[in-house]
């Protein structure tokens, strides 16, 4: 889109000269002889720059500038006059004029001023677009929220995305660590290349190595052809190493070598292959504790912990629940091909009282289930899982139903939910989970297996 300039000058010869001299800048230029005509133009068209004489028939240039500012017109102004005084110069600059020219002026000087202003406006436009793009992208992929915690995450994404720094994303399961990784990729210079992810906890060391680095034909039984690994497939793009805290020590050493010079060697290969990838890692473990206890290499930790982004759990950003609820209701209404239901206030109240051990992922699954089973056009508390009502009880909110209920069953359900949460926090290690709940290992194991059969 070409830039637009409006020139306001009552001397027709000077108006013609100014328009002619600026035409070489590849701009669309309009010219009028008074402020009243200029007002009509401005109401129909947006202008990047307005060049105006101060002394005009009717409304003068200063009052015209004031009229524009009162209406939120953000054009840049250049004022010109043959009757320059200190007062008029100061007043014009106070009104936001970018420059001030005294007649007669050098036409080349005017061109240089206009060119400089247009360049500054273009830079401003690019910065605004970049900022909008970050927020647009993260919302599109589901990174929703306006709480202090999520705004800090988005702020860190904006800072690190344009760089190639290795990022370590930490947080509990279900908080949206992969969404943060995608937001980093989408707002980087690599956004048009591949974003590939792998769960380091899902594969044993030998399979994880072949997935990451690939293999040559004949490298092992069944390798009847060569295959590229993720590092080669994602060349120029981003690799997301999810649950890196679960990576076997043997593989940690091999990954460390790759991160030192970004050269990989396929299994069974004899030559190194140079790769250009951005690394983003994530873990739900206390990685520093893992280092202290010898389960994670200290040198690899320092290599991947260049830039840390911690994603807070949902229970610490409950202000985001209404926004997330609305997002998921819209998402699954489209997916299920139904009209978006009205959400009753009681549903929101129940959700805000819940602790969400499964975080945003749990809320997402909850909404999908509710919309699948509901009938009618209103989402009601009865469409939510039963465990929300038991685990959201507080001493101040307890009310005994007229018909009574099975207290033992409720207490067992609450016990099991805490045990499940402890297992998640301990990475599935029953001994550590028992310590978190102040239970003996034997007692924890007995109740955990017993209650699991109940299928709460």
What would you note in describing this structure?
By secondary structure, the protein is of the alpha/beta class. The chain folds into four domains: 4-124, Response regulator (Rossmann fold), CATH 3.40.50.2300; 141-312, P-loop containing nucleotide triphosphate hydrolases (Rossmann fold), CATH 3.40.50.300; 315-397, Orthogonal Bundle (Helicase, Ruva Protein, domain 3), CATH 1.10.8; 400-456, Arc Repressor Mutant, subunit A, CATH 1.10.10. It contains 19 helices and 16 strands. The chain has helices at 12-22, 35-44, 61-70, 86-94, 107-140, 148-160, 177-186, 205-213, 230-233, 249-261, 287-292, 298-304, 321-336, 345-352, 359-373, 387-391, 407-425, 430-436, 441-452; strands spanning 4-8, 28-32, 49-53, 76-81, 97-102, 167-170, 195-199, 214-215, 227-228, 238-242, 263-264, 273-274, 278-283, 307-310, 342-343, 378-379. The strands form five sheets. Strands 2-1-3-4-5 form a five-stranded parallel β-sheet, with helices on both faces. A five-stranded parallel β-sheet has the order 7-10-13-6-14. Strands 8-9 form a two-stranded antiparallel sheet. Helix 17 crosses helix 18, helix 17 crosses helix 19 (441-452) and helix 18 crosses helix 19. The chain is extended, with a radius of gyration of 32 Å.
């Amino acid at each position: 889109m070409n830039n637009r300039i409006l020139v306001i000058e009552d001397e027709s010869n000077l108006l013609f000269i100014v328009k002619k001299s600026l035409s070489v800048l590849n701009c669309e230029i309009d010219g009028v002889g008074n402020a009243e005509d200029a007002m009509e133009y401005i109401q129909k068209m947006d202008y990047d720059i307005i060049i105006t004489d101060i002394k005009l028939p009717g409304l003068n240039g200063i009052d015209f500038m004031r009229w524009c500012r009162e209406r939120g017109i953000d054009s840049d102004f250049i004022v010109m006059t043959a009757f320059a005084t200190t007062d008029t110069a100061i007043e014009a600059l106070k009104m936001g004029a970018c420059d001030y020219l005294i007649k007669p002026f050098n036409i080349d000087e005017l061109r240089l001023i206009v060119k400089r202003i247009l360049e500054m406006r273009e830079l401003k436009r690019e910065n605004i677009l970049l900022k909008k793009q970050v927020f647009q992208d993260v919302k599109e992929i589901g990174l929703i929220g306006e709480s202090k915690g999520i705004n800090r995450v988005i702020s860190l994404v904006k800072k690190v995305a344009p760089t190639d720094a290795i990022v370590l994303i930490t947080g509990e399961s279900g908080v949206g660590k992969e969404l943060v990784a995608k937001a980093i990729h989408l707002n980087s210079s690599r956004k048009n290349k591949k974003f590939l992810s792998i769960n380091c906890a899902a594969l044993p060391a030998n399979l994880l190595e072949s997935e990451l680095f690939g293999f040559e034909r004949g490298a092992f039984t069944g390798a009847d052809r060569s295959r590229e690994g993720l590092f080669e497939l994602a060349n120029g793009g981003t690799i997301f190493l999810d649950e890196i805290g679960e990576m076997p020590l043997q593989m940690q050493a091999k990954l460390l070598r790759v991160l030192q010079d970004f050269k990989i060697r396929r299994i069974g290969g004899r030559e190194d292959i140079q790769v250009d990838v951005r690394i983003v890692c994530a873990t739900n473990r206390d990685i520093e504790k893992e280092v202290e206890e010898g389960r994670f290499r200290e040198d690899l930790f320092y290599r991947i912990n260049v830039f840390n982004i911690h994603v807070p759990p949902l229970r610490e950003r409950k202000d985001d629940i209404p926004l997330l609820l609305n997002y998921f209701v819209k998402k699954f209404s489209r997916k299920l091909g139904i009209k978006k239901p009205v959400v009753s206030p009681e549903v929101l109240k129940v959700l805000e009282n819940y602790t969400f051990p499964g975080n945003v992922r749990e809320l997402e699954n909850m909404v999908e289930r509710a919309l699948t089973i509901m009938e009618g056009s209103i989402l009601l508390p009865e469409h939510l899982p039963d465990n929300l009502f038991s685990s959201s009880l507080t001493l101040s909110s307890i009310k005994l139903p007229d018909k009574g209920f099975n207290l033992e069953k409720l207490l067992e359900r609450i016990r099991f939910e805490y045990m499940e949460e402890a297992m998640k926090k301990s990475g599935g290690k029953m001994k550590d989970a028992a310590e978190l709940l102040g239970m003996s290992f034997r007692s924890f194991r007995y109740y955990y297996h017993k209650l699991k059969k109940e299928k709460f």
